[in-house]
Amino acid sequence: MSTIPGLPTLAWRTSDFRLLSNIRSILAVEPTIPVRRPPAGQERLELVSATDGRTHRVTEWAYGSALAARTGHCAAVCGHVVVLCALVTPPGPPCRRCTLLP
User: At the top level of its lineage, which domain of life is listed (predicted)?
Assistant: First the structure.
């Protein structure tokens, strides 16, 4: 066995191999914890539209699909096409039609 100067030599023990096999078996097991997700489209987000400056209610699903498509446009509950502003934009006056719809 040749050694490299300056590097420590590694000595493997039988317990080290058992530890590695235990780690491999843990990593191979799929998690059995159920993931709780809210129903899609049930949550409403209040977003400001750049076109009219009003705060509209947008479903979570519509917002997510706008982000995935990278368009920056999504439909509000009232039917208005919301051009997304930065999320740090202060809220504007609420849309009357969005507040009336469930």
Answer: Bacteria
Domain boundary assignment for the chain? 44-100
Q: Is 6 exposed, middle or buried (0-12, 13-18, 19+ CB in 10 A)?
A: exposed
Region 43-54: mean pLDDT is 90
pLDDT tens digit sequence for 75-96? 999 999 999 888 788 989 999 9
Query: By CB neighbour count within 10 A (0-12 exposed, 13-18 middle, 19+ buried), where does 92 fall?
Result: middle
The conformation of residue 82, written as its DSSP 8-state character, comes to E
Structural element, H or E, at residue 99 = helix 96-100
Question: In the predicted model, is pLDDT for residue 72 greater than 60?
Answer: yes
Instruction: Answer for the pair 94, 55: CB distance below 8 angstroms, yes or no.
Output: yes
Q: Which of 59, 63, 98 is nearest to 84 (CA)?
A: 63
